[in-house]
From TrEMBL:
The keyword Cell wall biogenesis/degradation does not apply. PROSITE patterns: SER_THR_PHOSPHATASE. It comes from the Eukaryota. Gene3D superfamilies: 3.60.21.10. Residues 120-125 form the Serine/threonine specific protein phosphatases domain. It is an enzyme of class 3 (hydrolase). The keyword Metal-binding applies. It catalyses: O-phospho-L-threonyl-[protein] + H2O = L-threonyl-[protein] + phosphate. The gene is LOC103507604. This is Serine/threonine-protein phosphatase. Belongs to the PPP phosphatase family.
Length: 325
């Protein structure tokens, strides 16, 4: 009996390795394999709490948005997958051309390296948003039907909402909420559902910081809130945090401190939408340290600058605070 189980496990592992090898070449999986991949991902993600606890050393990554070359390049910058620990802050799909391959590969890595790969939910990991911003159309184009999109969006419901690094850094995709002060309350959310239009879960995925806002106000995104330094200061003090780390907004250098260095934004999709000229960045944390080491990179598919002919030479052609991801 033990030999039989071992053989089945080995066969499953070999199949997963073949999927990873295929996906790393930017070749999509067949529809039947995607269904199995999503099922295995759900089995793992469903065991994790809303707030997952992650220890250092770890590398945190921001939005990917279907930019496959940047996803592969950040592993070159951050270290070999399976040896280095990675925390992704959401928004794997939409906008870019290879959302299917990006999320398939990340799910495969999660299954193979469950203690080295951690995936949070972003505001684009839901049915309503991904149906509008490209992922639905990509699935239809590449598979000729809606089934693959349904498999992925059903799996997205199981993605955790936050990560707590060494009990000192709270990470989420969007930002804070005035509906919650204690981190423990986040674990009380029933997350296995479509992202609602309002509430704590929505704020965690949709909110943005703003240094000019005293407390908080409604967001012009139509979901989440805009939170000011006073909210962040109160939240970090109450929960004994060094700072919060989030993604969700394009920033010129790939990372940006705000709110008296209590809020850090990370964005990993370089030259976002092939027009923003932003750098991508990841954040590495050494063991027992809250001091980030940033690794930046230019887009792997940058078009030449019309002025100089140098790829990615102009990184200041937009206002990062108002370009929404």
């Amino acid at each position: 009996m033990c030999t039989e189980i071992s053989t089945l496990s080995k066969r499953s592992g070999n199949e997963l390795d073949s999927w990873i090898s295929q996906l790393e070449k930017k070749i999509k999986l067949p529809e039947s394999k995607v269904k199995h991949l999503c099922k295995k991902a759900v089995e793992l993600l469903g065991q994790e709490k809303n707030v997952i606890v992650v220890s250092t050393p770890v590398t945190a990554c921001g939005d990917i948005h279907g930019q496959f070359e940047d996803l592969m390049y950040l592993f070159k910058k951050g270290g070999r997958i399976g040896q280095e620990k990675y925390l992704f802050l959401g928004d794997y799909v939409d906008r870019g051309e290879y959302s299917v391959e990006c999320i398939s590969l990340l799910f495969a890595y999660k299954i193979k390296y469950p203690n080295y790969v951690f995936l949070l939910r972003g505001n684009h990991e839901c049915r309503s948003t991904s149906q509008v911003y490209g992922f639905y159309d990509e699935c239809m184009r590449k598979y000729g039907g809606v089934t693959v999109w349904k498999n992925f969006t059903d799996a997205f419901d199981y993605l955790p909402l936050c990560a707590l690094i060494d009990n000192r850094i709270l990470c989420m995709h969007g930002g804070l909420s005035v509906k919650c002060l204690d981190i423990g309350e986040i674990n009380m959310i029933d997350r296995v559902k479509e992202v609602p239009y309002r509430g704590l879960m929505t704020d965690l995925l949709w909110s943005d910081p703003d240094d000019e806002t005293e407390n908080w106000k409604a967001s012009n995104r139509g979901a989440g809130i805009i939170f000011g330094p006073a909210i962040t200061s109160l939240y970090t003090h109450f929960n004994n945090l060094a700072y919060i780390c989030r993604a969700h907004q394009v920033v010129k250098e790939g990372y940006e401190w705000s709110q008296e260095k209590l809020c850090l934004t990370i964005f990993s999709a370089a030259n976002y939408c092939s027009e923003c000229r932003n750098q991508g960045a990841i954040m590495k944390l050494n063991r027992n340290s809250t001091n980030p080491i940033f690794k930046q990179y230019l887009g792997q598919t940058y078009p030449p600058s019309p002025d100089t002919g140098d790829a990615g030479s102009d990184l200041t052609t937009y206002n990062s605070r108002y370009f929404m991801a």
